[in-house]
Amino acid sequence: MSKLKIEIITAERVVLQDEVDMVVAPGIDGQLGILPHHVPLLTSLQLGELRLKKGSEEISLAITGGFLEVQPDRVVVLADAAEREEEIDVARAEQAKKRAEERLSFRTGEMDLARADVSLARSLMRLKIAEKRRRKKG
Ligand code: ATP
């Protein structure tokens, strides 16, 4: 069966390079499933879980948004921030969540509220992926 080469990069590092069967990405308009020989595509991604199917294995990553480029046998994700599931630091995400919740409860300026909101969404998404991994591993 043909495979898709995937490369997930940020401005700082190569997060993952692999060959997979399918990519499911958090597209700006909803989940986007990409199989080999997909038509070329360039689109934005939103905050969410990026899943890679590789045989019976499923690899999950947290991404905070970015761009996705699809070529027939290759997918490139340029992410704002990305962590493989095993890289997620749960204590750090818990702290970020707590900070964001505190800022939201103090209700300061509009700008701060919007920032706290997205910060909360990032931490909740990281915690969800870390929890899923914990359950998967038993
Ligand atoms: P924090 O307040 O803890 O920095 P944040 O949501 O503001 O969280 P980002 O701006 O999304 O952080 O990311 C900054 C960098 O830190 C990125 O390289 C990202 O991959 C990494 N990062 C953020 N939170 C975590 C985490 N819980 N575990 C592992 N890496 C993380």
SSE order in H/E notation? EEEEEEEEHH
- CATH overall fold name of the largest domain: ATP Synthase, domain 1
Class inferred from helices and paired strands: alpha+beta
**Mean model confidence by pLDDT:** 94
CATH class term of the largest domain: Mainly Beta
Strand content: 35-45%
Please identify which CATH superfamily of the largest domain we are dealing with. F0F1 ATP synthase delta/epsilon subunit, N-terminal
What would the principal axes of the Cα set say about the shape?
globular
Roughly how many Å is the radius of gyration? 16 Å
Which ranges are low-confidence, i.e. pLDDT below 50, for 5 or more consecutive residues? Answer: none
Under the CATH scheme, the architecture of the largest domain is Sandwich
Report helical residue fraction. Answer: 25-40%
Number of domains: 2
Ordered list of secondary-structure elements with their pairings:
Blueprint: E1 4-9, E2 14-20, E3 22-27, E4 30-34, E5 41-54, E6 57-71, E7 74-79, E8 82-84, H1 90-106, H2 110-137
Helix pairs in contact: 1-2
Bound molecules: adenosine-5'-triphosphate.
